[in-house]
Amino acid sequence: MLGELKPGYIADISIFDGKTSKDHRAIIDAGVEDVVLVLRAGKALYGDAALLDDAVIDASTCEAINAGAGDVCGVAKKACIAKDLGGGKTLAGIQTAGEKVYPLFFCKNAVPKDEPSCTPYRAEYKDGIADGDQDGDGIPDSADNCPTIFNPVRRVDIDAQADGDGDGRGDACDRCPNDAANTCPIRGDKLQAGVRALTDPNDSDGDGIANGKDNCPEDANADQADADGDGWGDACDKCKSSNAGGSPCEVTVPQIRNPGTDAHPKEHVVVQIKDAYVTALSPFPQPSATSSTLRGFYVQTGTDPYNGIYVLAGTKNYGVSVGNKVKIEGFYVEAFGVSQINASRVAIDDPGTRRTSSRST
Length: 361
Prior knowledge:
The protein is mainly β. The protein has helices spanning 25-28, 49-52, 81-85, 91-98, 253-257, and strands spanning 13-16, 35-40, 43-48, 63-64, 77-79, 190-192, 195-197, 249-250, 270-282, 295-300, 308-314, 325-335, 338-350.
């Protein structure tokens, strides 16, 4: 499992049929017919029709794949194309257009047509894998500085295999390609009795806490300190207020604008601000609904310093007007030294006065 199944987390989940193959083999051996359910942010995208039709999943309007024609390798499946993409896009339309070039899917026991061989091959190395050259790079294993990894000679290396540190191990398989003594630090390494131990894949940061239980799996923090109790350890928490899972960092405009405040978030964090009022639109007037011109607007949450901020909407038209009371989610960034929010979601909580205004800063 990558990630965690916990309340408040984003819920990007894939479920595979494990009746025949067990544990990780259920994923490795799976074909399209074995993918039982795919969720993105908790919303169904694909899966068994019977499951998507369940009221709990709430995806009964998703489109059947190959309905009446055997479905997907004998298993009734649905895909949520129209529901997910909108804009008149449908599974039938995509399938009709795509299958003019290539089939939508192959069953797991079928050999895809017109696919290249899985055997390493280059026109310059016509012999490919052969006795004495197990990676097929044209260099005998006895002379190959990476005998199991394809790394042919390069003209830039004067027709030699790349070996930047000259230690006899090719760059393609050298864990320390710039250190002939192979003592380069690797994130997660631990020193034990003066001997460097290789990274434990189950403990990426080497702090003694397994990745699945570590509240900062990529930042060493053996104490697991979590001052705001949101599941993100203090060592890696980019938000000083509680933001469990992938939820936005709830902050005020002054906390964003003023780096001297205790709750000032780190740049590029997803933030959410509430009870903000639109004070001006940029550009003014707003472009048409089909225009690609960048849109934006200014909001204010009070009259004290640091209470105003610019919101970049990109080419999306959120339909806001001056006077609207809005809630905004997006990335906090410093653009040319000026704080702004690159919006990903804008909700109008109160339409307000809807009066017009000239552009302001």
